[in-house]
Amino acid sequence: MSRGPWHVAVLMGGWSAERPVSLSSGEGVAKALESRGHKVTRIDMDRDVAARLAEAKADVVFNALHGVPGEDGTVQGMMDLMGLTYTHSGLATSVIAIDKQLTKQALVPHGIPMPGGHIVSSESLFEADPLPRPYVVKPVNEGSSVGVAIVTQDGNYGSPIGRDVEGPWLHFDELLAEPYIRGRELTTAVLGDEALLVTELRPKSGFYDFDAKYTDGMTEHVCPAEIPEEIGQACKAIALRAHQLLGCKGASRSDFRWDDNQGVEGLFLLEVNTQPGMTPLSLVPEQAAKLGIDYAELVERIVEDALQGARGAKHG
User: Fold this and answer.
1) Of 28, 71, 115, 277, which has the most beta carbons under 10 Å away?
2) Are 106 and 96 in contact (CB under 8 A)?
3) What is the DSSP letter of 163?
4) pLDDT digits (tens, 9 = 90+) for 91-111
5) CATH of 7-88, one of 3.40.50.20, 1.20.1250.20, 3.90.170.10, 3.30.450.20
6) Which residues have a catalytic role annotated?
């Protein structure tokens, strides 16, 4: 397929907790496309986004939004109604993948290993623990480790959790409670129909939360991860299978916890990110670069995937 030149509308920003990350991703994408001779229209999403997309009359929209409503199917549904071609996953996939509980319901019956757990009301946490400690509580539909809390036996949240203690229970009515899996943080990117590499994330302190992800120097990325061959192969196989089962398009990233005392039995998929970050610190560009795919090439491949999908749909 010809590589353009294309006119690409880069959709970024929005109003989720991940707005700064999205702006960084979007600007990186825009500059990369311009460096390859493509025309770019930058759109910082506001409530008039549909009108601005219509005015742009671009060949394709690069969806660089993160979080709600850019990653949960809302924006995808709007662009479907407008007949626009856009990168990354479509409406149904986005609705499922942003919701950690729906993701489990879609993947676990197919043999994908994911932690147990259930949805709890935040109010109930002030009365009793939903699971034996240690356990994790997290919002059902936020990405980038926004609002994740690890509740330990000797932690400072109280027992039961105090109503006046900062945590996701003060900001969300419902949370997903899961058993805490000790061990190591791994992640695998999928591009098209290929799992790339496995990266181990080693936070300098605490755990791999939002700040650790997006603050330079707070997390060491070991890529490729220094793990047994069978664990690396399992990560890639699970990531690719989850990408396919959910119907992801373009790039996705699967995050894992691995209890290294348990071998393959200790490997659990936590979530699938349908619109992984494209910032200078992001994991998908880093893995691609290790395989000889530079940033601009990666961006073009994602756009190309969207254009080919649209062409296939018209002729299908």
Assistant:
1) 71
2) yes
3) T
4) 999 999 999 899 999 999 999
5) 3.40.50.20
6) 18, 144, 282
